Amino acid sequence: MNDFFDMVYQVVRLIPQGRVTSYGAIARLLGTGQSARMVGWAMNKSHTQPVYVPAHRVVNSQGLLTGKHHFGNPMAMQELLESEGIRIENDQVTGFKNVFWDPQKELKTED
DNA sequence: GCACTGACAAGGT
DNA sequence: AACCTTGCCAGTG
């Protein structure tokens, strides 16, 4: 796998600090559309990648920290996001639309 | 090779 | 608005 998964990691790595994006947004960017699950699946094995992938900046379409259990410590994801200036309330990103980083919009000129 | 699972999303009831 | 169903695709048992 050097196509889909690597693309996902690349996009996730491009997420600026203090911003978040959704699995579906990445999926649509890659053209997989409905296969948002594969993005999450890619995140699961992101730890196998040679480079660090800020998976904590990826949340679901509701802004919920659905994958926080996969960080070893469930609150690690929230801690990381809050460290970047993102406010979390009840496992949800407050002002989600304000911190949402749309790859399709930001990377519109990507090659 | 079939079946189940999984960090999701959208649509219907 | 809450809950249920379908789609999707790769990995593992």
From TrEMBL:
Domain Methylated-DNA-[protein]-cysteine S-methyltransferase DNA binding residue range list: 3-86
Gene Ontology MF term list: catalytic activity
Top-level taxon of origin: Bacteria
Pfam families to which the protein is assigned, alphabetical: DNA_binding_1
SUPFAM superfamilies (alphabetical): Methylated DNA-protein cysteine methyltransferase, C-terminal domain (SSF46767)
Keywords per UniProt: DNA damage
Annotated GO biological process: DNA repair
InterPro entries per record: ATL_DNA_repair (IPR052520), MethylDNA_cys_MeTrfase_DNA-bd (IPR014048), MethylDNA_cys_MeTrfase_DNAb (IPR036217), WH-like_DNA-bd_sf (IPR036388)
Segments crossing the lipid bilayer: none
Designated name of the protein: MGMT family protein
Organism, as annotated: Gaoshiqia sediminis
